[in-house]
Amino acid sequence: MIRIKEFTYKNSYCLFEKFNIWNDIVHDHIIPQKQFEKCKKIHDNKYYTLIDGVITVTRKDLLCFYGCKYPKNDFKITFGPYIYINKPFKLDCDIFHFRCYNTSNAVIFDDVHFHVKKLSKIPKESTNFLKEDFSIPINNKRYDVHVYVIDSLSYYHALRALPKTRKFLKEKFNGVEMEYLNVIGGNSRPNAYGFLLNKQNMDVDDFFSYEKTKKNDFGDLDSCEVALDNQTFIQEYYRKMGYVTLSAEDYDSGGVFSYLNCV
Fold first, then answer.
1. Cβ atoms within 10 Å, residue 190
2. Rg of the chain's alpha carbons, rounded to an integer?
3. Taking a C-beta distance cutoff of 8 angstroms, is the pair 33, 27 a contact?
4. What dihedral angle (degrees, nearest 10) is formed by the CA atoms of 179, 190, 232, 149?
5. How far is residue 203's CA from residue 183's CA, in Å, rounded to a whole number?
6. For each of the chain's 263 residues, which pLDDT tens digit applies?
7. Are strands 95-101 and 107-114 parallel, antiparallel or unpaired?
């Protein structure tokens, strides 16, 4: 510990060396798994088409219905009525349940479908987070922004386990890898505050006790009890600038900012 303190005191930088992800010492902790067999696709939709948000039944000998699912909050959804599809329908939802019956009232096809409903009009909002003399060009092209978050995944883990995914994102989408990007806390919520809000919700302590503790952005308040209203949420910034936004988390106990019982 004394040697480390002396080194840290004399140097204001750290040198990160390249690491062989399949070094022999790695095998003491990781056993490479065999390649997964390719799954056989069995989903075969011969019952409806969905083109430009319009659903049309292709089997006239069946009775088919759809029901929309509308998001209410991070915990609940609202169920719309089931509608008999006797003609093409324009959907007003992103997620719908589709089911077909035969003449014996037996379910022949059952599916939940997701698509992105196009908005005819995008409301304009105030962009008070931009400088007063900055204006967004009317005909400026808005590039799509996709953010995929895989929880509990380190940089080296991604190198070992997701080579095809990394290649696809880098070659097809010009993806940029941020090497050695460090975590803020031990779970998703504190990391999301830094990643999406540019906020630190945990105090920063000097490991070697040379510097004073840096207070978090919420001071003595519990960040879980502070609403995101008027906070620096990057997704809201994009939305207010005219982008269509979509946030889809796959955890049934709430979103990253609302778990657990946060406001």
1. 19
2. 25
3. no
4. 50
5. 14
6. 444 444 445 667 777 777 788 888 887 877 776 666 788 877 788 999 999 999 999 999 999 999 999 988 777 889 999 999 999 999 999 999 999 999 999 999 999 999 988 888 877 778 888 887 877 777 777 777 777 777 777 788 888 889 999 999 899 988 888 777 667 887 888 888 888 899 998 898 888 888 899 999 999 998 888 888 767 888 888 888 888 888 878 777 778 888 777 87
7. antiparallel
